[in-house]
Amino acid sequence: HRYDFYVPIFTILQLMFYMGLLKVAEQLINPFGDDDEDFELNWIIDRHMKVSYLGVDTLNGTPPPLVKDTYYDELDVKIPYTEASKNYKKKTYRGSVAYMQVPM
């Protein structure tokens, strides 16, 4: 008696592809969650706040008269964290050329 056995290679590839897409779909449902694979929302908010203050305070060629606000005398603005989000604060990312000296 001779048995014909075969391995369904394309079906296995389809299953692996489907499972991979399922993992991607799980992350796309909630990309700002608390898992390790999720976006660092606190870092994104901190960076955008710093960039917006930089743009308003220093990059404008003809700024309007300054009006004193809560953060007027502070150079590095500390964003108010809640008790729940305080543990997620990280240092600001510095790129590989952040401290490079550019000749003028």
From TrEMBL:
UniProt GO molecular function: chloride channel activity
UniProt main location, coarse: membrane
Membrane-crossing residue ranges in chain numbering: 6-25
Localization (cell): Cell membrane; Membrane
GO cellular component: chloride channel complex; plasma membrane
This protein's UniProt keywords: Cell membrane, Chloride, Chloride channel, Ion channel, Ion transport, Membrane, Transmembrane, Transmembrane helix, Transport
Topology in membrane: Multi-pass membrane protein
Protein purpose: Forms chloride channels.
Similarity comment text for this entry: Belongs to the anion channel-forming bestrophin (TC 1.A.46) family. Calcium-sensitive chloride channel subfamily.
Protein name as annotated: Bestrophin homolog
Organism: Parasteatoda tepidariorum
